[in-house]
Amino acid sequence: MGDIHKKLQKIQCRLKTPKSRWSKFGKYWYRSLEDIYEAAKPLLDEQGLLLILEDKIVIIGGRIYVKATAILQDVEDGGAISTTAYAREEENRKGMDSSQITGATSSYARKYALSSLFLLDDSKDADTDEYKGNETVSEQEAKKLCSLMRKKGMTEQEITEWGNNMGLKSFYEITRRQYVETLKVLGLE
Questions:
Q1: How much is the pLDDT for 126?
Q2: pLDDT digits over 86-121, tens only?
Q3: Is there a contact between 50 and 72 (Cβ–Cβ < 8 Å)?
Q4: What is the pLDDT of residues 135-168, one digit of tens each?
Q5: pLDDT in tens, 8-55
Q6: Record's superkingdom (predicted)?
Q7: What is the Cα–Cα distance from 29 to 20, expressed in whole angstroms?
Q8: Where are the alpha helices (DSSP H) in 60-174?
Q9: How far is C-alpha 126 from the chain's CA centre?
Q10: pLDDT confidence of residue 10
């Protein structure tokens, strides 16, 4: 069963899911559950691992929680590792019915179970070996992107926070991939 630990370690070292989505409401950068799935699937396939997600509704202290369990199973020998995360359902949320509230809470709990399993954090992704080979955009392109972000209504502080969340020491370090993702996320394409 030690083999699954080695496989998980390889995935943890290689899986990159930067916070590349912008919340206009909350004014912060985040990664979605779908971003994690998309980044993890090829690595899971490469390592011969199956990811199973299970939700369970539990009541703790009179409040409703979604308990999400992420199970990583080796398809060869059946070895498994799991992590669990909880998210509390809001009693009501403007513009959402009860099934939407449960679905959003499930996504949140699953995202944190996967973050725990894969050791996802806010590390400076641009400083890792995986990114060192990525081409950076020109100074002119970086300035143009900043200008577009300002036109989109972002403040200097929000632009700086975006850069920090993407692992940039300077905005001029932005890679081509990060540049394209930002254009997509902000609808600037």
A1: 42
A2: 988 887 776 777 888 888 889 999 999 999 999 987
A3: yes
A4: 778 888 888 888 888 888 888 888 888 887 777 7
A5: 999 999 998 888 888 777 777 888 999 999 999 999 999 999 999 999
A6: Bacteria
A7: 6
A8: 98-118, 129-132, 139-151, 156-165
A9: 15
A10: 94
Tokens of 14: 């290689």
* Spatial separation of the C-alpha atoms in residues 161 and 136, rounded to whole Å: 19
**Ramachandran sector of residue 119 (left: φ over 0; alpha: ψ -120 to 50; beta: rest):** left
Say how many C-beta atoms besides its own lie within 10 A of residue 153's C-beta. 9
Give which of 29, 32, 12 is closest to 120, Cα–Cα.
Answer: 12
What is the rounded distance in angstroms from the CA atom of residue 144 to the CA atom of residue 156? 14
Which two structure tokens, joined as six digits, stand for 154?
């972002």
Tell me how far apart the alpha carbons of residues 22 and 158 are, in angstroms, rounded to a whole number.
Answer: 10
Strands 80-88 and 63-74, by their bridges, are antiparallel
Crossing angle for the helix pair 139-151 and 176-185, to the nearest 10 degrees? 20
CB atoms within 10 A of CB 87: 20
Output 127 or 97, whichever has higher pLDDT: 97
3-state percent helix, strand, coil for the chain, nearest multiple of 5: 50, 20, 30
* Tokens matching residue 115: 């973050």
Element (H, E) at 80: strand 80-88
Angstrom CA distances, 67 to 2, 12, 54, stand at 27, 23, 8
